[in-house]
């Protein structure tokens, strides 16, 4: 199927996180010559709660269960560790907790089995057009300069992406959530319950996800660049899990969140470039769900690139349009909900989450059964007019 000149891959994928590895798998399985380039040594750890809708299995022909750490069937919400609401998730095992070091390495392995070439310790520094192909100026192990070539490039370099905005893809000034993640190794009291705590964090929330041998805990703020006082929050949260207030290894981070519809494919001089995952600012601005859009965009990017490389000039526009319909439409409502909810979180909790049907709706959103558009207008009206 490939018609690239010698030394030129069909597609280079920059970044082997969930988005890049998913794209590389589908591109290689579609018969293309794929170079998957990753700055880190693999397997690498990645601060992430690892909560993921089980419906993501539908994107892959291989079994994802080797990457699944635990299966969640209940979600528990609290306000200042009190006033709890519990929702039983719909369907069979709809929400999984994955370990990112395992999931990402597993997806890469599947991409390699499908024929992709995987290079670790290679950081792509810039992209330049050279005739019909892209030249990737890169640094390999020990800082060695490398020049790689491909007809198309999938930019999957995560929330710190330097390449996306430089080539006019995604927002020119991305918006960020501030996060602190904590991994605690301990005995887990309720391994099938995910917890969301809303009252302790200004403009955000904390999550506690059980995994094998411990918890993935996080603190996130979603409005402004207002770092949560994570140590103070954790010193209250951790004892509620029977853990010492200073337990765990803490890692601060920034997460690009969805902030409007933007082209996710390059045009004119940038033809042949696509952006996926966090680099495309796809992460949910209300609940920080980024794995689902990372995997969906990786798969959809591959589905668009295969016909584009075979001569269908409209296929990459189709990728931006499809992501807008399949993900962006729901996120536009998620952003509006976040802006109202996190400004009046106590009211939001009482009127938005403590309603009899609300936890179930949130669970359906997390499991991918519903989008924010299905609930948004009623939720926003309730929060703005503060009535039940
Ligand atoms: C604390 C925290 C908790 C989270 N919890 C959840 C959760 O429970 N559920 C959920 O759905 N989402 C969660 N998210 C969001 C989720 O982690 C991200 O949305 C997801 O990792 C996006 O995947 P990605 O492949 O786009 O980017 P990444 O996973 O960040 O992968 C990008 C890859 O690109 C590589 N790279 C970067 N620059 C270069 C370069 N120049 N050259 C080559 N390689 C490069 C990086 O090393 C990395 O491996 C969380 C995020 C944070 C910060």
UniProtKB/TrEMBL annotation:
One annotated GO molecular function: oxidoreductase activity, acting on the CH-CH group of donors, NAD or NADP as acceptor
Task: Kindly indicate whether the keyword Membrane belongs to this entry.
Answer: yes
Q: Which UniProt keywords apply?
A: Membrane, Transmembrane, Transmembrane helix
Query: Does the record bear Transmembrane in its keywords?
Result: yes
An example Pfam family from this entry, by short name, is FAD_oxidored
In terms of InterPro entries, this protein maps to: FAD/NAD-bd_sf, Geranylgeranyl_Rdtase_fam, Geranylgeranyl_reductase
**Residues spanning the membrane:** 12-37
Could you name the domain of life of the organism this protein comes from?
Answer: Bacteria
Q: Which protein is depicted?
A: Dehydrogenase
Tell me what organism the protein belongs to.
Answer: Cyanobium usitatum str. Tous
């Amino acid at each position: 199927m490939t018609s690239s000149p010698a030394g030129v891959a069909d597609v280079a994928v920059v970044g082997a996180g969930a988005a890049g590895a998913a794209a590389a798998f589908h591109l290689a399985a579609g018969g293309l010559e794929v170079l998957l380039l990753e700055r880190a040594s693999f397997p690498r750890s990645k601060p992430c709660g690892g909560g993921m809708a089980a419906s993501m299995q539908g994107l892959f022909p291989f079994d994802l269960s080797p990457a699944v750490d635990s299966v969640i069937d209940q979600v528990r919400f609290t306000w200042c560790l009190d006033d709890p609401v519990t929702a039983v998730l719909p369907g069979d095992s709809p929400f999984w907790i994955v370990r990112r070091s395992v999931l990402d390495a597993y997806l890469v392995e599947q991409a390699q089995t499908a024929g992709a070439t995987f290079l670790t310790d290679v950081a792509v520094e810039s992209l330049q057009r050279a005739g019909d192909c892209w030249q990737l100026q890169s640094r390999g192990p020990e800082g060695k300069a490398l020049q790689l070539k491909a007809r198309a490039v999938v930019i999957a370099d995560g929330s710190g992406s330097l390449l996306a905005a430089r080539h006019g893809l995604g927002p020119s000034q991305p918006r960020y959530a501030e996060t602190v993640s904590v991994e605690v190794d301990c005995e887990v009291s309720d391994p099938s319950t995910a917890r969301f705590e809303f009252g302790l964090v200004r403009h955000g929330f904390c999550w506690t996800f059980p995994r094998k041998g411990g918890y993935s805990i996080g603190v996130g703020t979603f409005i402004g660049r207002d770092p949560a006082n994570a140590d103070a929050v954790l010193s209250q949260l951790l004892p509620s899990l029977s853990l010492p207030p200073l337990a765990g290894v803490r890692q601060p981070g920034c997460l690009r969140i969805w902030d409007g519809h933007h082209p996710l494919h390059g045009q004119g001089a940038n033809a042949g470039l696509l952006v996926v995952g966090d680099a495309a600012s796809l992460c949910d601005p209300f609940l920080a769900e980024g794995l689902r859009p990372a995997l969906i965009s990786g798969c959809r990017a591959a589905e668009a690139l295969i016909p584009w490389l075979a001569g269908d000039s409209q296929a990459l526009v189709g990728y931006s349009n499809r992501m807008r319909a399949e993900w962006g439409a729901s996120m536009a409502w998620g952003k509006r909900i976040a802006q109202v909810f996190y400004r009046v979180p106590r009211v939001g909790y009482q009127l938005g989450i403590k309603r009899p049907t609300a936890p179930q709706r949130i669970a359906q959103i997390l499991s991918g059964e519903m989008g924010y558009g299905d609930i948004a207008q009623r939720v926003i009206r309730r929060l703005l007019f503060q009535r039940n």
